[in-house]
Amino acid sequence: MKLSSCTAVAGANIALVKYWGKRDESLNLPAAGSLSLTLKELGTRTTVRFGEHLGPRDRLRLNGLEPDDVTRTRNVSFLDLVRAYAGTDARAEVVSENSVPTAAGLASSASGFAALALAATRAAGLSLTPEQLSALARRGSGSAARSIFGGFVRMNAGTAPDGSDSHASAIPEGDGWTLRLVVAVTAEGPKAIGSTAAMARTERTSPYYDSWVTTIPRDLLEARAAIAERDLPRLGALAERNALRMHASAMAADPPILYWTPATVAAIETVRGLREQGIPAYFTIDAGPHVKVLCTAGTASQVEAAMGATPGVLRTYIASPGRGARVLQETTS
Ligand code: PMV
After folding, report:
1. H or E element that contains 155
2. Strand 91-98 and strand 179-185: pairing?
3. Ligand 1 pocket test target in 18, 247, 249, 283 with most atoms within 8 Å of CB
4. Quick check: pTM over 0.90?
């Protein structure tokens, strides 16, 4: 087997129809589909090198630091999947950098595992189809499956017990639509409860979980129709409703999961205020307190200024639609 080194990049993605619930935790299979937008400016660049000489342990450097034990285990388990696929037991050296701080909780696991899936498989001498890569990235993080593709992306829940059809695909009807996503960061540090634990608790204890899952097929159809028509108010209203329903299902868990802070609510109010002034801006919120606002390219700086002036908002970013995961450099040893 040929071992080499590969550098790959992937953009983060923000779901407009959320993934919140698994039908199988060990294979990381989602309970339902989801739909997202891949971003250009927020992402991860990862270099992987496999080598027989690297010793008994994988060497990992994430954002210039050795990762903590939990992050290390998650990454090593993922590399084990790639090694099993490639039929090697060579250790890897992984160097990964995010374009924004990981701790800000801005979908860094999505771009992180998408970039790692591509860099590690290529460095191990494998050449997977985008669908196979997406299914592999899913094992690292459910949302990472979507970051293999660019622009608007849908994730198929799939039905195969081995998860082979549980991968994402591009929605080409959305290509060239010049939207922006303004990110309002409202807190520092990692989220209070990780998405896997929070999803499991919601599934086990929330009386609203089943209704949440039942609404998703309809939301996916509505989102695709809005994308095909390039109808931002329709897509935005759907995204807000979907995010609020996801959070409602989590808030109804026992013990409750509440990711919001006063700044989250203030940011929602700002978005509503922008709409009252005639600016088409729509929020979505992931498993954390930050607020992401979908708007047009022409109003993005106005939206950013309003979000930045909202009490409790610490920083803002403007992101635009980006390409799927891709290789930057490869060398064969
Ligand atoms: O990929 P995970 O396991 O971190 O889950 C992501 C969950 C949400 O970000 C809240 C929703 C989504 O679809 O990205």
Report:
1. strand 152-155
2. unpaired
3. 18
4. yes
